[in-house]
Description:
Elements: E1 4-7, E2 10-17, E3 22-27, E4 35-38, H1 41-62, H2 80-93, H3 97-112
Antiparallel strand pairs: 1-2, 2-3, 3-4
Amino acid sequence: xxxxxxxRGHNAVISYDPDANLFRGEFLGLNxxxxxxxxxxxxxxxxxxRSLQAFLDVCRERGIDPVKQxxxxxxxxxxxxxxERATVVAAARGVSLNSLIEEAIEHELDEVA
Length: 113
C-alpha cells in the first residue's frame, strides 16, 4: 500500500496537507489520536516515532491499553439494489450474506497488499 507507513509495528495513513504544505501521518488502530507531520519521508518517520512514543507514554501513565481491540462486527449501509443482489448471489453460492461480504473484503484487501 503506497500511503501506509509502518512505524514500530503500527500502521499510519500518510496524506499530503496542502494548507500546511507538509506530509501528514495518522496512526490507525490506537485508542486515541496520534498524528504527525513532516516535510520529507525521513522527517515524517522521525516525527511519527516521536508521536507514537508520546502516545504510548501517556497510555502507560494512565493505565490505558494503547491498541484498539476490534470486535469483528460493524454496521454496513448499502443501496437496496446491492443488498438484494448480494442476497441472491449468496444464496446461489450456498453461503451466508456475511460470508459473501467477508470474501469480497478479503479479495479487495489481497488486491492492495
